[in-house]
Amino acid sequence: MLPFSTIEEAATFMGRNLTVAETLWFNYSAKKSDYYLYCHNILFLFLIFSVVPLPLVLVEMMRSLGFDKYKIQPKVSLTLSEMFQCYKDVMRMFVLVVGPLQLVSYPSIKMIRIRTGLPLPSLWEIVAQLAVYFMIEDYTNYWIHRFLHGKWGYEKIHRVHHEYTAPIAFAAPYAHWLEVLILGIPSFLGPAIAPGHMITFWLWIALRQIEAIETHSGYDFPWTPTRFIPFYGGADYHDYHHYVGGQSQSNFASAFTYCDYIYGTDKGYRYHKKVLKKLKEGSKIDGAQNGGSYHYPTQDLKSE
C-alpha cells in the first residue's frame, strides 16, 4: 500500500510530477495491500498456462494446412482430447501446489524487499534486472536439472515431466509436485539477489513461463523473435532433450546454451544435428520438407 493518499502528496514526496505510468500505478495500487498485489501472480500464471498455449493447440489441429513443416517431431500427433487432458493435469497441480505456494511465499518477498511504491523503475532498470534473473535462473536450473537426471532423481521425480517425449505447449509446467517446488528455487534466486519493483517481479514470472511454453511448443518457427537472443536454445534445442528422454545427458539448460557448451552436455545434440544435416543434404530423410522441420531418423541417435 502506498504511503500517500493523493497524487499531489506523491509528487511532493518525489519532487516532481508523476509520469503517466506512475499515475496509473498510483490509481491502481494506492489502496491495495502489498500482499494483494503479490497475489496477482496467481491470476497471471493461470492466464498464462490457460491462454498462451492456445495458438499452438490450433496449429496442432491445422497441421495439414502447412504447419506440419515446422513440427520438430512430425510423426507424433496428439488429439485435442489428449492435449486437454494435459491441461487438466496442469490445472490440478496449479490448484493443489502452485497457487497455495504463491499464497504462503509472501513473507519471502517481504524479506528480500520487493517494493511496490514510487518511483517506478526505468525501462532500462527493468530490462537489466530481467536479464540478470534469466541468467541466474538458467545457471541454477542447469545443475538442478542435471541432478534430476540422475537415477534417483529421474525415477522418483523427473520422469513425470518426460512422459511427453514430443513436448507440447501445455506440458511446459507438467511435472511432479516436488519438481514444481524444487524448480521454484532458481526462479526466486534472481529477485532475491537483485530485488526490484513488484512490476519487474510480475514480468519476470510471466516471461519465464512464456519462455518455457515456447521451448516446449514442439514447433520451430522461423519467425520466432527469440531467434535474435544470443545463446538462446529455443524449442528445437529443448525438444531434443525430451526426444532422448531418460537417457538424456544433453541440453539441460532451461533457456540458453552456454552452460551445456561449457560443461560438454550438448555433444549429443550437436552430433545429432550433424547427422541430420548430412541426411538432409543427401535427401535421405523420409518426408523432409522445406522450413527446417524434419523426421527424427532413428532411435539409435538416442544413445549419443
From TrEMBL:
Signal peptide residue numbers: none
Key words of the record: Membrane, Transmembrane, Transmembrane helix
Chain segments annotated as transmembrane: 35-59
Localization in the cell: Membrane
Origin superkingdom: Eukaryota
Domain Fatty acid hydroxylase: 131-265
InterPro entries, per the entry: Fatty_acid_hydroxylase, Sterol_Desaturase_Related
Similarity remark: Belongs to the sterol desaturase family.
UniProt-listed PANTHER family: STEROL DESATURASE
Name of the protein in its database record: Fatty acid hydroxylase domain-containing protein
